[in-house]
Amino acid sequence: MSLSIIFIGSGNVATHLAQALHGAGNRIAQVYSRTLKNAKALADKFSAAYTDNIGEIDRTADLYLFSVKDDVLPDIVVQMPRTSGVWVHTAGSVPMDVFAPRGRNYGVLYPLQTFSKERSINFSEIPVCVEGNDSETEKFLRTVASGISGNVNVLPSEKRKYLHLGAVFACNFTNHLYALAAEIVENQQIPFDMLKPLIAETAAKVMEISPQAAQTGPAVRFDETVMRKHTELIGNEKTKNIYSVLSESIYRTAKKMQ
Amino acid sequence: MSLSIIFIGSGNVATHLAQALHGAGNRIAQVYSRTLKNAKALADKFSAAYTDNIGEIDRTADLYLFSVKDDVLPDIVVQMPRTSGVWVHTAGSVPMDVFAPRGRNYGVLYPLQTFSKERSINFSEIPVCVEGNDSETEKFLRTVASGISGNVNVLPSEKRKYLHLGAVFACNFTNHLYALAAEIVENQQIPFDMLKPLIAETAAKVMEISPQAAQTGPAVRFDETVMRKHTELIGNEKTKNIYSVLSESIYRTAKKMQ
Questions:
Q1: Which residues of B are less than 8 Å from A251 in CB distance?
Q2: Do the strands B4-8 and A152-154 form a parallel or antiparallel pair, or are they unpaired?
Q3: Alpha helices in B130-223 (DSSP H)
Q4: What strands, in cross-sheet order, belong to the sheet with A4-8?
Q5: Which chain B residue's Cα is nearest to A188?
Q6: A145 touches chain B (CB under 8 A)
Q7: Which of A12-49 are b and which e, b meaning 16 or more Cβ less than 10 Å from the residue's Cβ?
Q8: pLDDT per position in chain B (258 positions), as tens?
Q9: Nearest to B123 by CA among B41, B19, B42
Q10: Which end of chain B is less enclosed by CB atoms within 10 A, N or C?
Q11: Measured in Å, how far apart are chain B's first and last C-alpha atoms?
Q12: Which chain A residue has the Cα nearest residue B115?
């Protein structure tokens, strides 16, 4: 199956998805962004057309991939011209029905990964969650997603939002803890590099053992001596509070498991 | 250099260190634990002697490795018989001077890693931090550590405690976020497996990019719509609070960087 695909949005998710879909033999036909320079930058990778005028979006593509900020999506949907083809968005927390006022065949194609400009991503193992407004659309999206990933899941909006919430904890919040750890050691002229083997092993461990079973550290045994010493070392009151609420939560979870 | 080594303590850290030191050509001579069964279990791996009586600890070893709970260590130190050899502990947050009342040559050998019974560890890349009460002891401990790791660092107690604090954020707290993420998705019958590629990539990313630069998600752009939706999905008030304090901290950090 070779599809003609139009991207509405040109950020990290759009860029990585466009590369994967192009690599799977589809044609990136056009890129829309409200910033023309951004539309051009992504379009040029695929010799695609580009525009910053929603009215100029081509109406004959097979798939319209909306990858814009959550807040902006409803506005863009109402401005869209009538088109053939399927409309999908890539957002974790936006219900499929954002398209209901205007779409005919629509759905969601949500790749569960953190995308940065600096890193290339192997899509084949990324879980891609799809949803369609009817069984034909769902089947179409399953096929599209299977072209880029071996890990395709049909997941309704009501479930997807919880998956996205879990991803915020497992990725965004986790990365912030790395940043707080970096701040703590770098303030002492200790390089962040020293923490890298620990970070790698902590992630590798939960590939095999459940995170509940993998928990170690002073909070799990509620070692008050260590915890008191630690909070005394933290200069920032907000970070001190993070230390406390996470330690309490670890201890509470460990007690529940006994 | 082949040393005769006695372990005081038989937990995860002791077990992994004993295996690494044995693998480097040293002799595990004896294991002490207040629980005889545990002492025997570790000792039997190396055909070593074992005891649950501190008075029976052999006095002629080259190295005494104390790997016990922080709170217990001072008590054990005062009960120790006079021995030849160097005394070291493996704790992140205990000053070297815990040995001062009794030790002659003493120090610290702190491997920065999370150890579990279920996983074997390749010591060669683990940062090992050493400290000695005089330059001869420090040199001895550098040599011992170099036998098991290519990443040996001399780090005083005053710095080591900050490294340990950083490790709590980068490992213990991070793992707990994995556990909260697992709880959130599993409550919706979504398998934790779906989050694993994201967890792996989040960790892999900071091997190359600083965690400050790698930050993504709704909090970094303070996307209040998504954040409000998310907090509404969280049933547990304590977890809701964790969501709020971490989101605020992410946003505050991002603003500081601008």
A1: none
A2: unpaired
A3: 135-146, 157-167, 174-186, 196-205, 211-214
A4: A49-51, A27-32, A4-8, A63-66, A86-89, A106-111, A128-132, A152-154
A5: B159
A6: no
A7: bbbbbbbbbbbebebbbbbbbbeeeebbbebbeebebb
A8: 799 999 999 999 999 999 999 999 999 999 999 999 999 999 999 999 999 999 999 999 999 999 998 889 999 999 999 999 999 999 999 999 999 988 789 999 999 999 888 788 889 989 999 999 999 999 999 999 999 999 999 999 999 999 999 999 999 999 999 999 999 999 999 999 999 999 999 999 999 999 999 998 899 988 888 899 999 999 999 999 999 999 999 999 998 876
A9: B19
A10: C
A11: 53
A12: A216
For A179, the closest of B119, B201, B253 (CB atoms) is B253
Residue with token string 């909260």: B180
Selection from B95, B87, B102, B149 nearest residue B124 by Cα: B149
Return the structure tokens found at A71.
Answer: 């807040």
Consecutive H or E run containing B110: strand B106-111
* Inter-CA distances, B52 with A5, A115, B11, B59, Å: 71, 54, 14, 15
| The two three-digit tokens of residue B107, written as one number | 């120090």
Residue corresponding to tokens 């600083």: B210
When CB atoms are compared, the residue of B165, B215, B229 closest to A230 is B165
Encoded tokens for B148: 């098991």
Tell me the residue type at B174.
Answer: T
Judging contacts by C-beta atoms under 8 Å, the chain A residues touching residue B250 are 172-173, 176
Q: Is the pLDDT of residue A103 over 80?
A: no
Nearest to A8 by CA among A70, A66, A82: A66
Comparing CB atoms, the residue among A179, A195, A215 nearest residue B176 is: A215
Residue A89, classed as helix, strand or coil, is strand
Among all residues of chain B, which has the CA nearest to that of A91? B226
* Pairwise CA distance, residues A100 & A106, whole Å: 8
